[in-house]
Design goal:
The complex is a heteropentamer of chains A (about 500), B (about 650), C (about 100), D (about 400) and E (about 170).
Chain A: H1 2-19, H2 25-49, E1 58-66, E2 71-77, H3 79-98, H4 106-125, H5 129-150, H6 155-183, H7 193-201, H8 210-227, H9 236-243, H10 246-271, H11 273-278, H12 280-299, H13 304-326, H14 334-371, H15 384-387, H16 389-403, H17 410-424, H18 426-451, H19 467-485, H20 488-504
Antiparallel strand pairs in A: 1-2
Chain B: H1 2-6, H2 10-24, H3 30-57, E1 61-70, E2 73-81, H4 83-106, H5 113-132, H6 136-154, H7 161-192, E3 198-199, E4 202-203, H8 205-211, H9 213-230, H10 239-242, H11 248-257, H12 259-269, H13 276-298, H14 303-325, H15 327-354, H16 367-370, H17 372-386, H18 393-406, H19 413-437, H20 444-447, H21 454-469, H22 480-486, H23 502-527, H24 537-541, H25 543-550, H26 555-626, H27 634-656
Helix pairs in contact in B: 2-3, 2-5, 3-4, 3-5, 4-5, 4-11, 4-15, 4-21, 5-6, 6-7, 7-9, 8-9, 9-12, 9-13, 11-14, 11-15, 12-14, 12-15, 13-14, 13-19, 14-15, 14-18, 14-19, 15-17, 15-18, 15-21, 15-22, 17-19, 17-21, 18-19, 18-23, 19-23
Chain D: H1 2-5, H2 7-17, H3 24-58, H4 74-84, H5 95-112, H6 130-138, H7 140-151, H8 155-186, H9 191-197, E1 201-202, E2 206-207, H10 214-230, H11 242-245, H12 255-280, H13 296-317, H14 323-351, H15 359-385
Antiparallel strand pairs in D: 1-2
Helix pairs in contact in D: 2-3, 3-12, 3-13, 4-12, 5-6, 5-7, 5-12, 7-8, 8-10, 8-14, 10-12, 10-14, 12-13, 14-15
Chain lengths: ~500, ~650, ~100, ~400, ~170
């Protein structure tokens, strides 16, 4: 029941807020924030009630919906889902605070953010494809409007590109699943993830249709790859992220981009093990490209938001590298499965930590943009550290966390991913190593160009972080340190789920 | 022993807490921040001494813990207390303490004083953590954190673009090496199944090294990559001279005494992994670096840069010592070098401070009268570095290295390179001392230079004393240091000093050092009387060669032209790929869709619509005819319905009947 | 003596006939609607009568139908009368034979 | 207890017993009708007097005090005056309808009393669908008002009738909706069952009347407001607003017909008051267990009297509403609130299954909050939707 | 016997009301007569032991629909001008024959089926509780649909009955 409440609470709150009168803008905003805090509290309750001991689904709710088509209202979370729910619940209030001062119809903005949150929760808790897909799409629509209405000067094209790209992927995915449904024999027809995985595990899903299996696999892969994104399907992302308003960009990168990776782990991994295995090498190559090319491209950007957007692609590339590397059928040695577990744990850590870090980075870039009068070029600033030492210090922490500095949250995930990947897919991992260097290169370049050097006189009045802004980032900053020093907090939840996944692979 | 290992974690934690507190302090709480940092490092120093005392009596102790779980295993980390770590911890804590105190004076007027001590404490914490780490992973984490501290401190005067650039360069260049380290570490982890150095009293690295020669050599070399980056070995030495943009105490602490030596310490830590092949590489790299950097130092005019190249060169010696002679040889030079190089840097800082931030040695001169304490201590440092025999620590440690090289089976070339390096060292140090302290003041600033306050000179004196004394712990006659590291005991035996293996090498190096000092003194002792703008005597003699050396053999230019340009080009290419190729693809798809839509529209217009029109025209004709029945009178419809109903009823009844 | 089923049916038929005749003959839209209501009521009466005289009165089938029919009639009346008013506003008349804009 | 309590029942039985068995049902029905008519007829007379007296007191004057002691015979005098007045029918009036209208108003109202339980075993008929019957017969009054207004062929009459009908239609909705929760919770439409459902005691002898639940309290208030409007009483007496439209649909009536209208209106008020007592105030049940020895009809009468007094008090207190305010108030406030009250009743029912300590106050507060918050919001929304208060430029 | 009389009385009331409603000139009278017919029908329902339906009939037809009709009559000024009254005589021939024909057919068919001559089953009850339970179980879908339909009708009626925007006034 708690999952249902969690999922629909933002939706209901969003509808109610949208229905408020047009003169109730502030009230709507405050209510939305309160609702997101309630959702966060619920997520924390969920976390507290979660049993770390076993890796299966917990808090399961299963009701039939359209029994004739095998569509169920099936909710549940394992460690992975729980962490993603927690992350979403964390990011949404953070992003709301970042958009606190938005002027154009804040009520609508905040209710859309709540719809988005509901979509996220639904996606991360649904265990039936159709149910999952509904929420997957539900999250897309508010995101589109958030970009389209409140975005930057090129918002229309960015929003349309984002929408069409993602929609094309979704269509491919839906078609693939319907094909899968149609192709399986009536006895084993289902949309339920667990059932499909079990059938696949017994080898019964595509008994005779290898071509179809490949097509279905590629369709779903396309849908997920666009969302993550995987090079070469990533060109929508820099445009969308850089045109989106700050809070939306935080939502997009902090929580929505995780939906794709989550899909990889929840759908492709358990249901299509053989296809993953068969397509592993090209996928690994693409993952390596996703790590290196955007990192390098980020170095060539002049726009801070685009830089951070590219860095986001790069970081998600590590997740994909870990997933593809671990998709290697080995049942022989325990050491091997430990490497797989390392990679997958790393992927989950990276998802969570990137959510925190990237949204914090977008928050800071948004502050720069806001203070700089819509300027956000790399060369528009300089020496800001003199005027705003706290700003610089905190953004520096976020940058170093993004860079994977030990002691901050970025490190354990990347460490585990590379630990697994180096062993399971050495060549791809080695190819990806330069990505780490490029990341350092452009992140430090930001620090150098924006914060160091002489302070131009036009920025001499640059305000430091206000108390409210400090309080806004404080929880996230604290989490960066805590999760960097005690990753057991995350792996303790994620590891049982990973072991379960490995068992069924 | 057991008790001290329980509290070993306090050694890095105390400065870490000080750093954390310092970060939260407002800018005006200067004294509190400095007091916290110095107090914390004092605690660390005392604890290190206690730990050192404990190691004198017993061997090694470890304390391991679980960091986090994955799969069916977990990542282990831990602390280790053994002679290697203990000596290093004492050295680091002591030098840190002295430099912290020195900084009180040196940074007294800086507005970011508070932040400075915060960063220093952070550095000390990371460095001490690295020293006592019992896990390669923990080692790596601390390694990265000292890199961060180095970055922050090099860029401490961030208003200077050169400082910001140097900081970035330092971080990036060392990170190149670190990536190799990371790969090596992960490879080792996969192979050995653990990151620990010691577990249950056993070394964990030996079995891994025994596995396969090729693999373990590769792992060793990858880890050595990290050391190359951090210790400024060829080809990644370029960052270290630039790092002199940082405040001088930082240069002394991080870029002379401790952090750069961490690379050497790393090799010493993982020494069991070092296969003969790997050691050969280490030796050769060290040898090349030693001579290469020493020769560059000859032509520099910035007082700190000369010392920086000297540091690179001495690090090369340490590497040679590790490669040819083993842990003790390298570590001994590391320890002695830490003291005298810290001394030299602090002395240089005192000079710069006294000359109002002037760093060019050609604009100094005659300072021996104005800065007597600094001059005396600097001279001690110079002689220790140059390897003046018997009374200075540098002599003994360098001699041990040369001796080891002499007996090295690989090649004799490093030995000769080492000798050349020793000569060059003596040469450039003498040059420096002559230009700075001897002769007449060249500028007004030098004329009005003043001695530094006691808070700066007292650490100089202590370091000078140490620079002399430490050497006696590792003489061939009383190799206490070596024995301590190996866990044995050393007896005093003067005859070892005189045996036929050691004595010739000692004499040879002494001769070379003497030659260097004398020649240099002869050239620059005279030249120091001449005006500053005149060319260097060596430049007059060999203009082309001098220019080449002065420009550091154009390594930076070479990197700019190749690596940096390639990187930028690659970045541009990626950007182009995104914008033009992939973006174009998307646009092409878009155009295709639009074109299809146009085509479809035309087809609709001309074929479908026309056909429809014809069809509908026919239907309309029929409809018009039929529609006459429909006169819009609702009652008429109702009437029809009623009649139809009647008809239906009648029909039904008829049927029933 | 209680009345039998066919008496009720005849009553219903009469009501239906009256309603139909009125709906056909009268030209005021309101009256047409009244006629329709009468016809509807005739049908309702049939339902009730058949329920009452049917074999399974405990199943309440006829009653249910009438309940729903009444509800629908309420909606129908509301909508129909609203239509009449709307048309009256435009055409200034409520005569059904003048509502012939929909003729073919 | 039973003696005094059942005295009327006993009298009725004994009176019917004198007749042959075949006509006994008819006789007892006639007796019941006679009783009801006698009691409420007297009530009518007394209430008119009481109203005038109370109003007078509240307006700081005496009220009728000339006829009889303390003016107690005033109703009698009024009756004589009414019955002897000339019955004027306008020339252009539709005479039949003009005549029928007061009858159509009064007769169904009498019917409504048939289902009210005035005491233990004291209801004229036990109808399965009692409430439905009550509202069904009440619905005829609208037609009567229309007939009166239209047949008078007088502008004021017609406008008054239209206002009255609009008002009655509008307030019939909340009236019925506010009753529905009671039916839901009692599970019956029969009034005796509803009274029986409120007949238990809790908290050491406090009766479980519906009014003591959040939805019941809200329902009662809604019901009373709607009832006030249904019976065209102040502050909802627009249809007869003498300052605007003379006397509304009553303009052209006089004499006996006027008296019948008057009677009908008061009887309508009595009927809904009786219903309110039955539905919300526990009917003829005593408020405390230790007061059960008091006859049940007394309790009914007491509650009835209290509510009537409340109506009079309200009339003395509140000014008349404007027509738009009136309709807005119904559709924008009362109707949504009574719908929400349905939900609250459902919540009350649902939370009844909760089992943990101190559940009762928690449950009460929860449900109260459920109705209080919408009350607050709707009230604010209503205030926002209303046209701003008039500015009296020349009246300063 | 009593039943028969009651039935006849009610039937007479109903039929009279219906005929009057269809034949009177004055539309208000028509409407009121129709209400009378509805009330008579309600009485017949009561007589047929369908209490609930009877009351519902009364409540809805007399209480609501009749009022609606009256309102419409007034709003369309049907009570004042009677242009159709004169011509309605001429249209008798259009309606009455058809109505009569249908009536004849119906009555013929009723009379032709002997099975329709039957007496009611005794002791039939339609308790409200049972009606409610049926509505909530067997007829829950129709009930919900009706709710939807009524809402739609309400909205539709409001929309249709709303005044047009003022822009169209100059034309009319």
């Amino acid at each position: 029941m708690i999952l249902t409440i969690l999922t629909f609470l933002p939706l209901v709150a969003g509808v109610l807020i949208a229905l408020l009168g047009p003169d109730k803008q502030k009230l709507g905003r405050n209510l939305a924030f309160a609702a997101s805090l309630v959702a966060l509290a619920l997520a924390v309750v969920l976390w507290a009630a979660f049993d770390n001991g076993h890796g299966g689904m917990q808090f399961v709710e299963n009701d039939s919906w359209v029994p004739s088509l095998g569509i169920e209202y099936h909710l549940g979370v394992d460690g992975l889902g729980l962490l993603m729910v927690l992350l979403s619940a964390l990011i949404v209030p953070f992003a709301m605070l970042a958009s606190w001062k938005i002027e154009n119809n804040p009520k609508l903005y905040f209710s859309l953010a709540l719809f988005l949150e509901s979509g996220l929760f639904g996606t991360f808790t649904a265990q039936n494809f159709i149910h999952w897909f509904l929420f997957w799409e539900l999250s897309l629509i508010p995101a589109f409007f958030l970009i389209r209405i409140w975005g930057g000067p090129k918002r229309t094209s960015a929003a349309c590109q984002f929408f069409l790209y993602t929609m094309a992927g979704s269509v491919a995915m839906l078609a693939a699943f319907l094909a899968l449904y149609a192709a399986t024999d009536a006895a084993s027809r289902s949309f339920d993830f667990a059932q499909l995985a079990q059938i696949a595990h017994q080898g019964g899903l595509f008994a005779a249709h290898t071509t179809l299996a490949t097509a279905v696999f590629l369709g779903i892969l396309l849908g997920l790859a666009v969302k993550v994104p995987l090079v070469p399907f990533h060109t929508w992302l820099p445009a969308a992220y850089s045109e989106a308003p700050t809070g939306t960009a935080m939502l997009l990168t902090g929580a929505m981009s995780k939906m794709g990776v989550y899909g990889f782990l929840r759908i492709l991994w358990p249901i299509f093990p053989e296809q993953m295995q068969a397509w592993r090498v090209p996928l690994l190559a693409l993952a390596a490209a996703t790590i290196v090319l955007p990192a390098a491209a980020a170095f060539a950007q002049k726009d801070l938001k685009r830089m951070v957007a590219y860095s986001s692609i790069n970081h998600l590339g590590y997740c994909l590298l870990g997933i593809f590397a671990a998709a290697r059928l080995t049942k022989s040695s325990a050491l091997f499965s430990n490497e797989q577990a390392a990679a997958l744990n790393g992927v989950i850590l990276q998802m969570f930590n990137h959510g925190l870090t990237a949204s914090a980075l977008f928050y800071f870039v948004g502050l720069i943009e806001q203070r700089g009068g819509a300027l956000r070029g790399l060369d528009d600033f300089g020496g800001l550290r003199q005027a705003a030492p706290v700003f610089c210090g905190l953004m520096g922490i976020a940058l170093f966390a993004s860079l994977g500095l030990p002691g901050l949250n970025g490190f354990p995930g990347e460490f585990l991913i590379f630990k697994g990947a180096l062993h399971l897919a050495s060549r791809a991992a080695l190819l990806s190593i330069p990505g780490l260097l490029f990341t350092a290169l452009f992140l430090l370049t930001i620090l150098q160009r924006v914060f160091s050097g002489p302070l131009p006189s036009k920025w001499s009045g640059w305000p430091d972080l206000t108390l409210g802004e400090r309080l806004t980032v404080l929880p996230v900053m604290a989490l960066m340190f805590v999760l960097g020093l005690f990753p057991q907090l995350l792996t303790g939840v994620a590891n049982p789920a990973v072991l379960q996944m490995l068992k069924s692979f | 022993m057991e008790s001290i290992i329980q509290y070993l974690w306090l050694i890095p934690t105390a400065p870490l807490l000080a750093a954390g507190a310092g970060a939260l302090l407002p800018r005006r709480r200067r004294r509190l921040s400095a007091g916290l940092a110095i107090g914390a490092i004092s605690i660390s120093f005392l604890l290190s001494c206690a730990a050192f005392w404990a190691t004198l009596h017993s061997g090694r102790a470890t304390s391991n813990f679980r960091w986090f779980d994955f799969g069916t295993t977990s990542v282990q980390m831990g602390w280790v207390l053994d002679p290697l770590g203990a000596i290093m911890a004492v050295m680091v804590a002591l030098v840190s303490l002295l430099i912290f105190i020195y900084s009180l004076g040196y940074m007294a007027k800086d507005e970011n004083f508070t932040r400075f001590f915060c960063f220093l404490a952070l550095f000390a914490a990371a460095m001490l953590g690295l020293v006592i780490a019992n896990s390669l992973l923990l080692f790596f984490m601390c390694w990265e954190l000292v890199g961060l501290a180095s970055y922050l401190l090099i860029g401490f005067w961030f208003q200077k673009p050169s400082a910001a650039a140097a900081a970035k360069k330092a971080f990036i260049v060392t990170r190149i090496g670190d990536l190799g380290f990371l790969v090596g570490m992960l490879w080792l982890y996969a192979k050995a199944g653990t990151h620990l150095f010691y577990d249950h009293g056993q070394g964990c690295l030996e079995p891994a090294a025994a596995g396969g020669l090729v693999a373990s050599t590769a792992i060793a070399l990858l880890i050595f990559c990290g050391a190359v980056g951090k210790s400024g070995q060829i080809p990644l030495h370029v960052w270290l001279p630039d790092a002199m943009e940082g405040p001088t105490p930082v240069s002394a602490l991080i870029h002379a005494a401790t952090m750069v030596a961490a690379g050497v310490f790393l090799i010493a830590r993982v020494y069991p992994l070092m296969t003969p092949g790997a050691l050969q590489v280490v030796t050769w790299v060290g040898a090349l670096t030693a001579v290469f950097a020493a020769s560059i130092a000859v032509a520099q005019s910035d007082i700190k840069r000369i010392l920086a190249y000297s540091t690179v060169s001495q690090l090369g010696y340490m590497m040679m010592g590790l490669g040819a002679g083993g842990v003790a040889v390298g570590m001994f030079h590391l320890t002695t070098h830490a003291f005298f190089k810290a001394l030299l840097f602090l002395g240089a800082g005192s000079v710069i401070h006294g000359c109002h931030e002037e760093q060019d040695i050609r604009k100094m001169g005659g300072l021996r009268l104005r800065l007597p304490v600094t001059f005396a201590t600097y001279a001690v440092g110079m002689m220790a570095l140059s390897g003046v025999p018997l009374f200075f620590s540098g002599f003994w440690s360098k001699d041990a290295i040369l001796d080891a090289l002499h007996h090295w089976r690989g090649s004799q070339v490093p030995f000769y390179l080492g000798l050349l390096g020793a000569f060059l060292t003596a040469f450039y140090m003498t040059r420096q001392v002559c230009r700075v302290f001897l002769g007449k003041p060249m500028t007004v600033e030098a004329e009005h230079a003043h001695e530094s306050p006691p808070v700066m000179t007292v650490p100089l004196l202590i370091l000078a004393a140490l620079a002399v004394m430490v050497g006696f712990f590792g003489t061939p006659a009383w190799p206490w240091f070596q024995a301590y590291l190996d866990g044995g005991s050393a007896g005093f035996d003067l005859s070892k000093l005189m045996n036929e293996h050691q004595l010739p090498v000692m004499l040879l190096s002494t001769a070379l050092v003497a030659a260097g000092i004398v020649w240099s003194g002869w050239i620059y002792g005279r030249a120091s009387a001449r005006p500053a703008r005149e060319a260097d005597p060596l430049e007059v003699a060999q203009p082309a060669l001098f220019a080449c050396v002065q420009k550091k053999f154009y390594v930076d230019e070479f990197y700019d032209a190749t690596v940096v340009r390639l990187t930028t080009a690659f970045a541009r290419f990626c950007d182009w790929l995104d914008r033009v190729v992939l973006g174009g693809l998307v646009r092409a798809v878009c155009w295709l869709a639009l074109a299809l839509a146009r085509l479809d529209r035309n087809v609709d217009k001309s074929v479908v619509n026309e056909g429809f029109d014809i069809g509908t025209e026919a239907v309309r004709g029929a409809g018009q005819w039929v529609s006459r029945l429909q006169n819009g009178q609702v009652q008429r419809y109702l009437r029809v319905i009623g009649l139809a109903f009647c008809g239906l009823l009648i029909l039904l009844l008829w049927g029933c009947a | 003596m209680t009345p039998s089923l066919n008496q009720y049916l005849v009553l219903s038929a009469l009501l239906f006939g009256i309603g139909l005749a009125g709906a056909l003959a009268r030209r005021n839209a309101v009256l047409v609607l009244i006629g329709l209501e009468l016809m509807l009521n005739a049908a309702n009466l049939n339902f009730i009568a058949f329920w009452r005289f049917g074999p399974h009165p405990e199943k309440l089938m006829g009653l249910m139908f009438v309940l729903f029919s009444i509800a629908i009639a309420a909606g129908e009346a509301a909508l129909g009368l609203a239509l009449v008013i709307a048309i009256y506003r435009h055409r200034r008349t409520a005569q059904v034979d003048r509502f012939d804009s929909l003729k073919g | 207890m039973s003696g005094l309590d059942q005295i009327f029942v006993w009298i009725g039985h004994r009176a019917a017993g004198w007749f042959p068995a075949s006509v006994q049902p008819l006789v007892s029905a006639v007796l019941a009708i006679a009783g009801v008519m006698a009691v409420f007829g007297t009530c009518f007379a007394l209430t008119t007097l009481a109203e005038r007296k109370v109003l007078g007191r509240m307006q700081n004057r005496f009220g009728p005090n000339r006829v009889g002691p303390y003016g107690l015979l005033q109703p009698l005098a009024d009756a004589v005056k009414m019955l002897t007045k000339e019955d004027i029918v306008p020339f252009s009036a539709d005479k039949t309808l003009h005549f029928l209208a007061p009858l159509v108003l009064t007769v169904p109202v009498w019917l409504a009393f048939a289902v009210l339980p005035f005491g233990r075993n004291m209801s004229a008929i036990n109808l399965d669908a009692g409430i439905l019957f009550f509202f069904a017969v009440g619905s005829a009054s609208e037609l009567a008002v229309f007939m009166a207004g239209w047949s008078s062929q007088n502008k004021y009459s017609l406008v008054g009738a239209m206002r009255a009908i609009a008002q009655m239609i509008s307030y019939e909705v909340p009236l019925v909706l506010s009753v529905v929760p009671v039916l839901m919770l009692a599970g019956s439409l029969e009034l005796n069952d509803i009274v029986a459902a409120q007949g238990t005691y809790t908290f050491g002898g406090l009766a479980r009347w519906n009014v003591f639940t959040p939805w019941g309290l809200a329902g009662l208030i809604l019901f009373l407001i709607a009832a006030t409007a249904e019976s065209n009483r102040s502050p909802f007496d627009l249809p007869e607003g003498e300052s605007e439209i003379i006397a509304g649909f009553l303009t052209e009536y006089s004499g006996f017909k006027y008296a019948l209208f008057f009677l009908g209106e008061y009887l309508g008020l009595f009927a809904v008051t009786g219903l309110a007592v039955t539905l919300f105030l526990g009917g003829w049940h005593a408020p405390f267990q230790w007061l059960e020895w008091v006859p049940s009809w007394f309790w009914f009468a007491a509650k009835f009297g209290a509510l009537i007094f409340l109506f009079i008090w309200v009339r003395a207190t509140l000014p008349r509403l404007r027509l738009d305010q009136l309709l807005n108030f119904s559709w924008r406030f009362l109707v949504p609130l009574s719908l929400i009250n349905l939900l609250v009743a459902a919540a009350w029912y649902w939370t009844g299954a909760w089992k943990f300590p101190v559940v009762a106050p928690i449950r009460w507060l929860l449900c109260a909050a459920l109705i209080a918050l919408p009350y607050h919001w709707l009230g604010r929304a209503l205030r926002g939707a209303m046209p701003p208060p008039r500015k009296y430029i020349y009246a300063e | 016997m009593l039943n028969e009389i009651a039935f006849l009385l009610c039937a007479a009331l109903t039929l009279a009301g219906a005929v009057a409603a269809m034949m009177l000139r004055n539309l208000v009278h028509c409407a009121l007569c129709a209400a009378g017919a509805f009330a008579g029908l309600a009485a017949i329902y009561l007589q047929l032991d369908a209490e609930f339906v009877g009351f519902a009939q009364l409540l809805i037809y007399v209480g609501a629909i009749a009022i609606l009709i009256v309102f419409t009559v007034l709003l369309t000024r049907g009570a004042e001008i009677q242009p159709g009254a004169a011509s309605s005589a001429s249209s008798w021939w259009k309606g009455v024959p058809v109505g009569a024909l249908v009536l004849a057919c119906l009555i013929w068919s009723i009379m032709a089926s002997p099975s329709l001559v039957r007496l009611p089953s005794p002791n039939v009850h339609a308790p409200v509780k049972q009606i409610g339970e049926q509505l909530m179980n067997q007829f829950v879908m129709p009930l919900e649909t009706i709710g939807l339909l009524l809402t739609a009708a309400l909205l539709g009626a409001v929309v249709i009955g709303l005044r047009e925007p003022r822009t169209s006034e100059p034309n009319s």
